[in-house]
Amino acid sequence: MAEIEIYTQYGCPYCTRAVALLTSKGAAFQEIKAPNGSPERATSVQRSGGRTSVPQIFIDGRHIGGCDDLMALNAKGQLDPLLQAA
Q1: Where are the domains of the chain?
Q2: H helices of 1-86, where?
Q3: Peptide bond into 81 cis (omega under 30)
Q4: Biological process GO terms, please (predicted)?
């Protein structure tokens, strides 16, 4: 299985939606709480090339993007192969 990291913030509906999709796929992931002003949020911004919103999702170290990007990959049938990568 792929290594999945998702930076989230409490109360974020996009974070909830992204987590729900990954959970429905049976994917194991590390959820990193990254509220505004936290060191985790700064790491997320740095790793994502400057994106300040959450969620920010990484699969095997590759930046996937946010919730909309994750949903688009799923709609195109490109998410499952990423999740299955070893």
Answers
A1: 4-85
A2: 13-24, 39-47, 67-75, 79-84
A3: no
A4: cell redox homeostasis; cellular response to oxidative stress
The more confidently predicted of residues 1 and 53 is 53
State whether residue 17 is helix, strand or coil. helix
Residue-wise pLDDT for 74-84, tens only, equals: 999 999 999 98
End-to-end CA distance of the chain: give it in Å, rounded. 5
CA distances in angstroms from 13 to 63, 77, 78, 82, listed in the order given: 20, 23, 23, 24
Confidence of residue 85 (pLDDT cuts 50, 70, 90): confident
Please calculate the CA angle 69-70-74 and round it to the nearest 5 degrees: 115
Dist CA 2 CA 7 (whole Å):
16
Tokens representing 68 are 């909309």
